[in-house]
Every structure is written in C-alpha cells, then in structure tokens.
Design a protein that fits this description.
The complex is a heterodimer of chains A (261) and B (799).
Chain A: E1 2-3, H1 9-14, E2 24-25, E3 35-38, E4 41-45, H2 50-55, H3 57-62, H4 64-70, H5 76-81, H6 84-90, H7 96-103, E5 107-112, E6 115-120, H8 121-124, E7 125-127, E8 130-131, E9 138-145, E10 151-158, E11 168-177, E12 180-189, E13 196-197, H9 199-208, H10 215-225, H11 236-255
Parallel strand pairs in A: 1-2
Antiparallel strand pairs in A: 3-4, 4-9, 5-6, 5-9, 7-8, 10-11, 11-12, 12-13
Helix pairs in contact in A: 9-10, 10-11
Chain B: H1 3-7, H2 26-30, E1 46-52, E2 58-64, H3 66-69, E3 74-78, H4 80-83, E4 112-113, E5 119-125, H5 128-135, E6 139-144, H6 151-154, E7 170-178, H7 181-187, E8 190-202, E9 210-216, E10 221-226, H8 231-242, E11 249-252, H9 268-280, E12 284-287, H10 290-296, E13 299-311, E14 317-327, H11 340-348, E15 357-365, H12 380-398, H13 402-409, E16 418-419, E17 425-426, H14 431-441, H15 444-456, E18 460-472, E19 490-496, E20 502-506, H16 515-527, E21 534-538, H17 555-582, E22 589-592, E23 595-598, E24 604-607, H18 608-617, E25 631-636, E26 644-656, E27 663-673, H19 680-699, E28 729-734, H20 752-768, H21 783-789
Parallel strand pairs in B: 1-12, 10-11, 14-15, 20-21, 27-28
Antiparallel strand pairs in B: 1-5, 2-4, 2-6, 3-5, 7-15, 8-13, 9-10, 9-12, 13-14, 16-17, 18-26, 19-20, 19-25, 22-23, 23-24, 26-27
Helix pairs in contact in B: 11-12, 12-13, 12-20, 16-17, 19-20
Classes of the chains: A alpha+beta (261), B alpha+beta (799).
Chain lengths: 261, 799
C-alpha cells in the first residue's frame, strides 16, 4: 500500500480497517509535486498537496474548476497534507477531485516497473473505491486540457457542514463556440458508486442550447445515468433532488457568461 | 449592606467579581503543558483493551482466549470469571425515584450481552497496540437473542424482557396531575397539540474517557488518575465495588478535556481497569478510543413526546398535558440513574408560564442500546422544546405574535417565590426583562420586516424564540436524599503562604469551563489580594475539601460561595493577627492589593508577605496567646430551595433553502439571568458552548441505530458535530437577579445554552416554513427531512 498524504490511509490504519504488510511512503520521491502548463496541457503532479493546487496561479488560470472545488475539500489541516493523486487513487465517490478530473476529461499518467501508460479519467474509476490501477502501478501525474477562452466551468455541492463529503455535488465543464455548446460534461459527486458522468444530461443541454431544459427534463435525464446511494440519513431521492437543483444552477450559469470564474 | 454588595462594585483594588479575568490555566493548555491522564506514564504500567460485544442482545456460549494469551506483550486476558472476586456489580437506582428498577451491572459481560459495545473480555498488555492485536484473536461464541430497540414495542405485553428478573422493560415511570386538566381542555377556546421526536446524541469530549489505576498492595491503596467530574463520588464508588477501604482510595483529576455529563457515571471498562490493577498489582491504563467513545459513552435524550396545550380566548395558557417515552439502553446508569432526565422533563415543561393545570407522564424504558443518562442540560432541551413549540403553535392559532403570547403567559413579576404545578419552586425569575432585552438586541421588528421582504424574493427566513428555566445550585434533594453518596455541599480551603500568596483548594472541579478562575476571583476579591497571587488546587481527593465536583451547574454558585465564605474567614483571621502586630483595632484595618492598610485612608501599614514572615518564622515575637490561624476551610450547602432556578430567553435566526433542504444559521442571541455574574467572559463562553451543543442536537448530531441495535455512525466522519463554519455569531447579554440563598448571589450557567437552542432552532425553522404550511418536530432537522416535509421528495409532509 502507498502512503502519500495519509489523510485516508492513516485513519483506515487507526481503525484497523486496513492492515497492509508493507507501506511505501512516496512523500520524498522527487518530481511528483510539480504543477506546470505546456502546450495547452496543465500537468499536476500526483504528490501536489490540495492547498498547493488550490493556491496555484496556473491552476486558477487554466482549471478554475479545481480552485473552486478544492475550497470544498475538507479543512486546511487536511488540505495541507492530502494529495491530488491520493484523492484520485482513493476513488471515493463522495470526493470532489475524482468528479473534477472526469468533468475536465483529464488523462492520468501511471508508472510501473514495466513502463508508463496513460488512462483517460472515464476509464480510471471502476466502482466503490476501485480504480484501473494494476498491482505495482503508481499514479505519477494528471494532465488537464486548459480552459481556453470558450471554456465554462462550474462547481457546487450541497453539504451539511462545510468540508464534509457532499450530499450531492456537481463538477461541470463545457465550451461555448459559435453559438453552440460543445461537449458539456456533468460529473456528479455522491450519486453512484463512483463519480458519474451524466451523458444524457450533457446531450440534452447541448441540443437545447441556447435554451435551457426545464427542471423535470433535467431530472428525467439524470435518472438515466445517476444511481445515488442511500444511507441512514439521506435517501437516494434526496440526493437526486439536490443533483437536479445543482444541474439547473450549472446550466443557468453556463447560459449567462458567469461560467468562467 | 450585605457582604456581596460591599465586594461586588468594581471600585476598589482586587474587585474581580464582574470582571473578565483571564484563565490562569489557559497559558499552559495552549502551550501543550496540560496534564491529561494519557500524558502520564508510571513505572511497570500496562494497558488494557477490550473485546466488546458485536451484538445488541445475545447469550455468550463460549469464550476462547488461548490464542490471545500467547500474543507478544500480553500479560493477562480476563473474563468475568477472572475479575468477579475483584469487583462487585452495581445497580443504578435511587430511593426518591419511586419504583425505579435496574439489573445488577457487571464489569464484564456475565453470560449475556445487552448492548453492542458491552465489554466482554479484557486484554492487558505492555502496549495498547499489543492488547488490540491480541483482542482480535479472542473467539467469543454468541447465541443471538431478539434485540429490543423500539421503546414502544419494548412495553408491549409480549415483548422480550431484556432482564427477565425485572419482570418487564419499564425502568421507571412517574406521573403528575395538578389542577383540573380535563376541565381546562373542555373549556378551552384553543387547543394545540403535537408529537415530537428527540434524537439520541452524545457528548463527544475532545479528551476521551481516561483512567490510570495504580494499586499499591503494601497498603491496599488505589490511586486513580481520572478524567472525571466528581472525584469524591468516584473515590466512594471504586472503593465500594472493589472492596477497598475508602480512605485508601485516592482520585487525582488533572486537566480535563471536556465532560458535559459524560464523565460522571460508572463505566464497566473503567471499573475493570481498576479491578485489573488490583489483581495484577501493577498500574493499568485505559483510554477510550473514538469508536469506543461513540459506542459506550453515555448517550443523551432519545424521547418521543406527545403534548397539548389549552388556551383561553386571549391566548392565556390554561393547561398543559404531555406524555414522554424515553429509551435508556439496557441499564439505568449508576449511581445517578437514567430516570432523572425524564423526571426533569416533567418538572420543567412549561416552566416560564403561569398555568395551573398540568398533567404529565414519563415512562423510562429499557432497550438493547447503549445506556442513556445525564448529559449537559439534563431533560431541559426536551421540556423547553415541548413548551416553546406549543407556545408558537398557539401564537399561530390565536394570531398573536410569538413574543406577545409569551408576555401574556409569563409568571407575573409579583408572584415570586412561585410554585409551579410540577412542584418546582422559583425564588425569582426575570422572564419579562430577559425577553424585552432579547427583542431589542436582535431587533425583532427589523427581523420581521426583513423576513417579509425576503419572502417576496423567494428567500425563506425564520425567527424562533425560546424562554426557559434552568436548574442550578442543587440542594441535597437532587441525589443525596435518594441514597447516592454524591455531595451537594462543597468546600474551599484557603492558606495564606509566607509570601503573601494564597493557596486555594476546592472540591469543585475544572473541566475546561473555568471553575478555577471563578473561585480564584471570588477569593481574591474577598481577601483583598491580586488574583494572580492565588494558586488553585482541584481534583485531588487527598488535597481538596470533600465536595461534589461538577454537575447541575453548581461550580460558581456552590463552589463560589464556599470560596466567598472561606475568603471572609481568612481575611478576618489575617486582620486579627495584623491588629496585634500593628497595635490597632482589626476593624480599622483592611487588606488591599496584598497589603494591610488603614480602612479609612488606605495608608499602607504592612504587606501580607511581612505578616506571613512573622507568623511562620518569627512566632517568638508574637504574644503567646495569639495562636494565628492562617488556614481556613468553609463549606456551603444550598438548603433553602431544592434548586436555584435561573432563566433565559433565546432567539434564533435562520434561512432554509427549500431547493436543497439545507438550513443556514444566520444569528443567535441569548439573554441570560444567572444572578451575580462573576466573570462575564466565562459566562458568555459557557452560554455559547452550550448553545453550540444545542444547535448540534437540533441540526447535526444523532447516534443512529439500526433496528437490530447496531450503531451505524461511530466516527467523526459520520457523526456530525457542529463546527465553526456553520456556527452563527452568538450574542450574549444578561439580566442580573442574584439569588438570596447565598451572599455571592451567583446561580449556575452551564446548561442554559444547551437547554434553549433546540427549541429556538425548531421555532425558527417552523417560522421559516410557514409559507409552505408545514411543521417539523423530528430532530435533528436534516436536509432529507426538510425536503420530505416540503413534499419535494417522497410522499408529503412528515407531520
């Protein structure tokens, strides 16, 4: 088992939920904590701390979705240690960053003794805390397409306390070019066993642009892709309801010009 | 002029009563110099970890400890058969709660388990980690029995009886029937009714329950380093059940990281740790981890209430009727019992109002869950929420404003001392003054205007009021008369040291609430010395006067008065010696800023350090018959009333997002009357902390159990505590009605915040939801429940 920021691994060890024979600490591996933009691609090293990413000027310029989302990730003490790559590898369906990389169409660069491979975000998250990482593979960096002049980003979530895992959350990205909305991607948090792209909603929104679908149409579209979990406090229906409200807010923002920030 | 009046004006040196003196112990705490139990390491110390029951109700058919005993570091693996001879079981009943019953509770499970988390096997090892490794290898075989979790079902005639020897699952019941309730309802112009649900929650202390037990076989003496509220009570209970001479049991309580009523009870794991220390003749430490805390620290509340209120045409309350059903887990907790909470719900409901007709029933029911017992605000939040919700409903029905209907119903100012229909006696309360000050502080009219304006633009804000009474400064009527050795009196010893400083030892305890500051302020004021020249000792039963410790908001009122009386006595003794030395009448002298001065003109005559030097080292220069006594002890018992009731008025302002069901707290106000305010900052912080715990109860906190009695949220990720980000500014102000039961005039303030906040939140929420025509009474108010009540999901409103 790999130890990066330790914000999920250490509590799991404390609670004896995990008893690995070997723990590999990668915190001192050089080169994994760099953020750089090159040729329209923003690369974030897997060991970059949440707070480092949140404060990065490159990130706020090229992937403002992350800047917004990271403000919702736990609390400063956790953000100071927790890592970008660690959050993706932990693959918690209730976490912000997996949905963000899905919305942004990121590529995850993975290394192993056998060599390197690149995995599209859509192919990375398999299920409940499950990823495409094979035995012996380590996530090294994440590549994101930069926002560009036509890009639109949206992030919001509903949580009972700031910093908590959301009841439901939405990371969304799209481009508006020549009066058309291109490739809107709506990635939902806490609405399935992994971050989920709502493909039907994306199609509906692109088709209708510049008009917006009504709330019941949004709900109908989401019902095709989302399967929110139920727990002792919050029902699937409530999560679905909140997801619908968030989607409507995102669409409204995309139609106005506020979606840039 | 009374002594209190003489000392309280801030017009002389060392007048600390009424000043926000900083805590002398704060610097150490922020520098990491606190002394908590887990900071202590003793030579040859061992650690104990427990194998706990995974079942809510089961018979133990076999326990195999062979593999665990072979693990590295393990010194002893113990079951009930091993410690039976070292620790006797206990029964949580009190004589004055008529008919209350409970089963003998063993330190480790004896044949059956009755709740998840009950300790079954203890593993003692060189380290906690080694003990936990070994615990995983203990094999306990269980035959699951039917878990009884629902209090209503537990009372059905065919219900499984949790403790068959008790006959049924009813621990305790009590009824009140005062006045002519049926007639009042028959003649009422308006009747409002409701059903309410109060969630189980718990204290979540920053420092978990902790105990380090050190048995010395040479003297059969046991020293217990504990994080605890009542050291003398613990000394008695451990001695009694471990079969030791009480004089040879010492409890030492250093810094405590919060208690809130959690650290006032008898816990099987702590008793087992002490029994193991006696058995092994070595120090044994037990510190609960967070999961153990959630599963086994006492839980609070868990009430289902139905209630109704009758009013005349003018909106005056003529009668209240209520029925309270509360689930308390599988044992009535020792020694305070789990009947007190429901008892207080009955005593306090409708407390601020002058109704004469009152009928109430409380039923306290066993269930296969963790035990429920006294937690901050015991019974108050339920009583206040019931009365205040009915009051708001009545306001809506009669068309009166929420503030106006309260004004009409408060106990009249000229009616004190007032006996409520529940039998509670109020010396004097200030409901009218508190409410008016509150309305002004929150700009009530402005809030109402804002509410109307915001509704136009689809923003739903609500304003909730809650008036309340709080039990403080308890007399022996609380526990002593019931046979429990829980002191309601408390003492304070003061010693003038040769330096002119004073060492103060008191039986009240410091849990983080500032008791040490309070008693030092009082003593310094009365003696006439700098507060920094007082060193305070608390928590060590070998060093402090016998006292009750921290419970029922008594630290300032009882401990403060003991310090006041001790201060007066020491001052008089000092002046007597000074008079002899200075050849002056004692009445002509005073003590100011650590100096003997002329009372008349304040001229300095002699510093206390000089008096100390002469008394302690040059007694040869004093008259032979003087016999100076510079150590004094005074005790205080509040004996005039069963309790000194305080009162307060709360207001909550919040906003509901009907789209997501999220509730945002905007502002909160409290006007509180705790009598003499000794330290405004500490009073405000007690109030704010209490409010935050009440807001937690209303919006966030809940111990969630499955139907099978499994706790489903035993971590801080799933059990939501109120956090700073969600908390509103909490405004605190005072009305001051000193109690005449003491010279100091201070009443308690520890619990009023917790008592009022759930009611104020509920009333504000229902006020915000008025345009939708729905009401919510099932705490905590989650987004799920809001969406359901609004019909946004599921099938319509919850009520």
């Amino acid at each position: 088992m790999i130890l990066a920021g330790g914000q999920s691994v250490i509590p799991a060890l404390n609670m004896r939920l995990n008893e690995p024979a070997v723990l590999v600490d990668i915190n001192k591996v050089p080169g994994l904590g760099v953020i750089e933009e090159k040729g329209g691609v923003l690369r974030i090293g897997a060991l970059c701390r949440h707070e480092q990413v949140r404060k990065s000027v490159d990130v706020s310029a090229h992937a403002p979705l992350l800047t917004k989302a990271l403000a919702h990730v736990a609390h400063p003490a956790i953000r100071n240690r927790g890592t970008f790559g660690g959050s993706l590898c932990n693959a918690d369906a209730a976490a912000e960053l997996p949905a963000c990389v899905l919305a942004l169409g990121a590529t995850l660069n993975v290394e192993s003794a056998e060599g390197s491979r690149a995995i599209a975000a859509e192919d990375f998250f398999f299920g409940f805390f499950e990823t495409a990482l094979e035995e012996g593979e380590v996530l090294a960096s994440i590549d994101l397409p930069v926002l560009g002049a036509t890009g639109r980003h949206f992030f919001d979530e509903a949580a009972r306390r700031r910093g908590d895992y959301a009841l439901a959350g939405l990371a969304a990205a799209a481009r508006v070019e020549g009066g058309r909305m291109i490739a809107p991607r709506f990635a939902f948090i806490s609405c399935g066993d992994r971050p989920l792209l709502a493909g039907a909603l994306g199609e509906l929104v692109a088709t209708r642009y510049p008009d917006a679908p009504a709330e019941d149409e949004i709900a109908e579209a989401l019902a095709r892709d989302l399967e929110p979990p139920e727990d002792a406090v919050t029902s699937s229906a409530a999560r679905m309801r909140i997801a619908t409200v968030l989607a409507a807010r995102a669409i409204r923002e995309f139609q106005q010009n506020g979606g840039r920030a | 002029m009374t002594e209190a009046a003489r000392f309280s004006p801030l017009d002389r040196p060392n007048s600390y009563v009424g000043r926000s003196v900083s805590r002398p112990n704060a610097a150490g705490l922020v520098r990491g110099r606190g002394r908590f139990v887990d900071d202590l390491t003793l030579p040859r110390m061992l650690h104990v970890a427990f194998v706990r029951s995974p079942h809510a109700h089961a018979r133990i058919t076999a326990i195999d400890t062979a593999e665990a005993a072979k693990m590295p570091g393990v010194v002893r693996v113990a079951t009930i058969d091993d410690i039976r001879d070292y620790c006797s079981p206990w029964v949580g009943v009190l004589d004055h709660l008529k008919g209350i019953k409970s089963a003998p509770q063993p330190p480790l499970a004896d044949g059956k388990v009755f709740s998840q988390g009950q300790p079954v096997v203890a593993i003692v090892a060189a380290s906690r980690a080694q003990a936990e490794d070994a615990a995983e290898l203990v094999d306990v075989s269980y035959e699951p029995l039917e878990p009884v979790t629902d209090p209503v079902a537990a009372l059905e005639p065919d219900a499984t009886v949790i403790h068959p020897e008790l006959g049924d699952n009813l621990c305790f019941q009590r009824g009140i029937d005062a006045g002519e309730v049926d007639r009042a309802f028959a003649e009422a112009a308006h009747v409002v009714e409701t059903t309410m649900r109060f969630n189980r929650h718990t204290g979540v202390t920053l420092e978990p329950r902790s105990i380090l037990c050190d048995f010395d076989p040479s003297e059969r003496a046991l020293t217990l380093y504990m994080s605890v509220q009542c050291p003398h009570m613990s000394k008695n209970l451990f001695a009694k059940h471990l079969g030791l001479d009480e004089n040879r049991v010492r409890v030492v309580c250093g810094d405590v990281g919060g208690s809130f009523g959690i650290k006032i009870h008898t816990y099987p794991d702590e008793m087992t740790a002490a029994a193991l220390s006696v058995m092994l003749e070595r120090p044994v430490k037990f510190v609960a981890d967070r999961l153990e805390s959630f599963v086994t620290d006492i839980h609070a509340r868990d009430h289902d209430v139905s209630a109704r209120m009758a009013l005349d045409a003018e909106g005056r309350v003529s009668a209240i009727e209520m029925d309270d059903l509360t689930g308390i887990g599988s044992y009535s907790v020792y020694p305070r019992t789990s009947g007190i909470e429901a008892n207080q719900v009955l005593n306090l409901t409708g407390g601020p109002y002058a109704h004469k007709n009152y009928r109430a029933r409380a039923r306290v029911v066993f269930q296969n869950k963790n035990d429920m017992c006294q937690y901050r605000g015991v019974g108050h939040p339920i009583a206040v929420a019931v009365g205040e919700h009915l009051m708001d409903k009545a306001a809506r029905m009669t068309g009166l404003d929420a503030a106006e209907i309260r004004r009409r119903n408060f106990i009249p100012e000229d009616a004190y001392p007032y006996t409520a229909p529940s039998g509670a006696i109020y010396e004097r309360q200030s409901h009218h003054a508190c409410l008016e000050k509150l309305l002004e502080a929150c700009d009530y009219k402005g809030l109402r205007r804002d509410q109307s304006a915001q509704r136009e633009s689809g923003v739903y804000r609500g304003i909730g009021l809650a008036s309340l009474v709080e039990i403080t400064n308890p007399s022996p009527a609380f526990y002593g008369v019931g046979g429990a050795r829980i002191a309601s009196q408390d003492g304070c010893t003061l010693r003038l040291d040769p330096t002119g400083g004073v060492t103060l030892a008191t039986g009240v305890t410091e849990q983080g609430q500032g008791t040490e500051t309070i008693v030092a302020q009082v003593a310094a004021t009365v003696i006439g010395i700098d507060v920094n020249d007082i060193r305070v000792i608390t928590g060590d039963t070998d060093a402090v006067p016998y006292g009750g410790g921290t419970w029922a908001s008594r630290g300032a009122g009882i401990g403060g008065e003991a310090a006041f009386q001790a201060g007066k006595a020491l001052r008089w003794n000092i002046l007597g010696v000074a008079a002899t030395i200075l050849q002056e009448r004692a009445e002509a002298l005073d003590i100011r800023d650590g100096c003997i001065v002329n009372a008349k003109d304040g001229m300095e005559r002699m510093p206390l350090s000089e008096l100390g030097r002469i008394v302690y080292f040059r007694g040869d220069t004093l008259p032979k018959d003087l016999a100076p006594e510079l150590v004094v002890t005074r005790h205080y018992t509040q004996n005039q009333y069963p309790f000194c009731f305080t009162n307060a008025a709360h207001a909550c302002h919040l906003e509901v997002d009907p789209a997501t069901g999220l509730i945002r707290l905007l502002n909160y106000w409290v006007v509180e009357d705790c009598g003499t305010v000794i330290n405004p900052k500490l009073v405000a912080e007690q109030t704010r902390g209490g409010v935050v715990q009440g807001l937690g109860a209303a919006l966030f906190e809940e111990c969630l159990y499955s139907g099978e009695g499994q706790l489903m949220n035993g971590s801080l990720a799933e059990y939501l505590l109120p956090m700073a980000g969600e908390m509103p500014d909490i405004f605190v102000d005072h009305v001051t009605t000193p109690t005449a039961t003491s010279e100091l005039g201070a009443k308690g303030v520890g619990e009023a915040g917790t008592a009022g906040a759930p009611a104020a939140v509920m009333n504000a929420l229902n006020d915000a939801l008025q345009p939708f025509g729905v009401e919510m009474t099932d705490m905590p108010f989650t987004p799920e429940k809001v969406l359901r009540a609004l019909g946004r999901i599921g099938g319509g409103g919850e009520d």
